[in-house]
Fold this protein.
Amino acid sequence: MYDLFVLGQLMDESMSGYLMRQILQQIVGQQRKISFGMIYPLFKRLHEAGYISLEEESEVGKRTKKVATITELGRERFKELMVQKVPLNPNLEFTYSVKFRNFHQVDIKLRQKILLDYQDYLLSNQSLLTKQSADLEKTKISEPDLKNARWVISLKQMKNKAAIDWVRLSLKELGK
């Protein structure tokens, strides 16, 4: 997941770990803390795999900084990661958002495939929410708990429907 993010960012331009951390922090928001203790080991691993090169740059009176540049092997890896199906896990939404942010790096057919995969996930999720709602009626819980559970499920269904509408609109725009 973070490999795709870093390689995608480097497809546009080389950058320091400091800038990479700032950009990633903006994407994940305040829900997750992105530390240099995560970025620099990631840089090191990607460098050892041959996906990026690392150069130390120094400016007078300032600390040296490591600047990462994607290699040809890294470009190939980026494309592989963009094609891979997103696994069902807690990072699914983040992984899709990283893929969406990198749409300018891939052709229209791959964009459509990613959007269709995401739509399939959302439609499946909508079915699961409908089933969850039906199963809830069979569960022996108090009326106030049942009411609140229905309320929460309706919120999830509305968010899911908005995402489905967004995908459909995005697919329509790609078709133009």
